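Archive maintenance. Older records in this collection stored only the sequence; we are now back-filling the structure field for every entry so that each record is complete. The fields below show one back-filled record exactly as it appears after the update. Entries are processed alphabetically, and L-threonine aldolase is next in the queue.

ARCHIVE ENTRY
Title: L-threonine aldolase
Organism field: Methylocella tundrae
Length field: 349
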Amino acid sequence: MDFTSDNAAGVSQPIFNAMMATNQGASPAYGADPFTAKAVALLSAIFETDVAVFLVATGTAANALALGALCPPWGAVFCHETAHVMEDECGAPEMFTGGAKLIGVKGRAGKIAAKDLAAALKAFPRGLVKQVQPAALSLSQATECGAVYSCAELAELSAIAHAAGLGVHMDGARFANALTTLDCAPAEMSWKAGIDVLSFGATKNGALACEAVLVFDPAKAHTLPFQRKRSGHTVSKGRFLGAQMAAYLEDGHWLVNARTANEHAARLAAGLARAPGARLPWPRQANEVFAFLPGKTDAALRAAGVRYYDWTMRDFGEQRAEDEVFVRLVTSFATSASDVEKLIALAGG
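Back-filled structure field:
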């Protein structure tokens, strides 16, 4: 019973089949293949605009390249203090930007509030030569805590950033999970809400290794072909990235996978909320469930073979009791419904 990460899941069958089919015969290299062209066309159709697409194999590459396109070496990237770009990418954003500074902003459940962004920007006045210059805002959708920004919240934060001269990036490693939660169009949760560059994730939701940097403002895309090549992320057999992305998007497969993962998480959250002594610090919105568990419940789950991660406590306005543990459980398209029910039963929910 593995609830450690959606990265623990395998490749969904349609994507695996597409890669096998792509393996037959020869095809032009470095992304000049029909599979990549199909993926680009699908992405432009889904997002209702012509979008510049740069396929890469990892989310870290997507995020770092996106921020490198938005932020100079003397710039500042504002993000939540627990954002993946801040805590989990080993300095890749700093390296790809040539040394830009990441500025963490506090906020409950991984979300930045408009007033807190405005206050952070005020502390970095433009033109002060001894300070880094505000250049980009990075928002995670869904957040590291599994929370989801509404389209109105995204638009408000983007408007504040744009008014201050910043570009806006979205880390969409779990874009599909957030989208199915909001039940809106991809365009509404991206460029129509003011997002300039999107790291569009597929790996956590069924792909083998495939992410895309989507640039909605052509003026911000002209350096990316060179940045991607210089950083070692231009894949020679790029057709295998194109095939993954095309199969991911065809027939709404990406949304089916995300909806399945979210439904598993919803059942898990409801079951844990009923379990004696267990509590959820904030509502489950995507495919991550965060919970305080009594120590004896945690021990029983682990003894039964349930796998998940302890999670770091932050100043989210919650206090942990002495005999509580704070944990994260993640579901995926491949999660077994019976595993969810077994976990709930073990917890007493």
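Update note: The chain has 13 helices and ten strands. The longest strand covers residues 133-140.
Entry marked complete.
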